[in-house]
UniProtKB/TrEMBL annotation, chain B:
Family: Belongs to the P(II) protein family.
GO cellular component, one term: cytosol
Keyword Coiled coil: no
Gene3D superfamilies: 3.30.70.120
One of the GO biological process terms: regulation of nitrogen utilization
SUPFAM superfamilies given in the database record: GlnB-like (SSF54913)
GO MF term list: ATP binding; enzyme regulator activity
Protein known as: Transcriptional regulator
InterPro entries with a match to the protein in the record: N-reg_PII, N-reg_PII-like_a/b, N-reg_PII/ATP_PRibTrfase_C, N-reg_PII_CS
Amino acid sequence: MPANDVTPAPTTQPFVAADIAFVLIATAMVLAMAIPGLALFYGGLVRRKNILSIMMQCVSLTGLMSVIWLLYGYSLVFAPDLPYSLGFVGGFDFVAMNGVLPTNSESGQTIPAVGTIPRMSHFMFQMMFFIITPTLICGAFAERLRFASVCWFSVLWGTFVYCPVAHWIWSDTGWFSEFNTTNPWCKAFDFAGGTVVHITSGVSALICAIIIGNRLGFRQEPMPPHNLTYTALGAMLLWLGWFGFNAGSALAANPLAVAAFTATHMAAASGLLGWSLMEWLSHGRVTLLGACSGAVAGLVVITPACGTCSPLSALLMGIMGGAVCYLACTRLKNAFQYDDSLDAFGIHGVGGLLGAILTGVFATRMMKGGTEPLGLIDGHPEQILYQVIAALVTALYAAFISVILLKIIDSSLGLRVSQQAELQGLDIAEHGEEGYIFH
Amino acid sequence: MKKIEAIVRHFKVEEIKEALTEAGVKGITASEVRGFGRQKGHRETFRGAEYTVDFLPKVKLEIVVSDDQEPKVISTIIAAAQTGQIGDGKIFVTNIDEMIRIRTGEMGDEAV
């Protein structure tokens, strides 16, 4: 066919190839945080008889949450408000990828867009957050919860906690959304999910640890990690994947993504130093587990702030994150004697709350652009109040719903495995397989 | 006949085996064991939680010899196993009532 006979397709759609490529790669990087990153990180921290059960939770939630996201999760977060819900949760406009998939008509193919990328890539990127958030909670109830209960809790928690909170923070009409132009009553900054991901999961993790109860033998026998080399490799994968998590949240290959990328790295680096310094002062030596935990704590703390703060502020936030999370995982946990097995609350809950508040301190238009002052150092101290309100409402809501869900599951299925199964280890008791078959 | 049990460091096992073989010892049984002596174990720290590890890994060598071999075997083990640092191990000596080689039915010193 001669070239001049080709009718050009309508080019009204604003897609930018670099942005699409960037978001796809970022999406894959976030998936690498859950599997294999979190699977290895958590896997090394449990005892050898539970290695498979925790890895199974990471991998099976990846499958389960993906399906829920397609069916209705994405819609509950990003669709316009459910009628009469007063901005509480999104409606059903995007159910089963309706409005996400391309449509064909006589005038050609139409591909729904978000900014300069197809809505489908936005759908996929956000799906990874929906996967990793309930997976983080698994660290709190590791080594004792029934597998069926893990699945039910995660699906219900994703539906009733994650979706509403993500709608509040990230939809165009959300209560705390900085994108809310119609009724902007409490604009909190949460660039990559400090509140949506880490506060919700961390606080719910604490509730799980308290309601489910301590592991058999907790505080009576040592329960050291069974393979810290896994944990270290997992932490390094988390650090790598977090670039996708944070920089990808710019949804475009632009200077904002570069700023978020840089802040992310600086916070991880200084978080590592903060935790190590505390160990040095307390025990006279530093540990690999401490260094890795500190890096993750720094990453958690910077997550809400990485799009609005400078790399130097990120450095400060990381150090504070490392030190505060260290205290949470040692002093706080010892004082209250709850068995947050792998410190999901100590790192994600405490780090998330700290990060949300510090975002109000360090947000600056120098990084984000615009003329409005953003945080305290920009001359807008009220921002801290907005951050605190959003963080506290989210924390209380996540805690409240988690209690209800756990009670419902406990009275119907039962939460905890039998004592015999717990002693035997969940690998054999729940899954009938063994992690280390060489002896 | 005497049974000599020596609890020694892992990295000394090869050296001890060679010295004993040279001193005329015909058989050694070795096993991985865990234990502690006066110095106890060490402390490990995981995310701020400290654990005491009392049982340290060692190797136990069991050697049965005739009575007249005993002093030489003991001095050979000491010479090969000693580092001078805490944790070098211990040697225990017990009497053996009888010893039988299964293949031939030989008994006593003949079976050593």
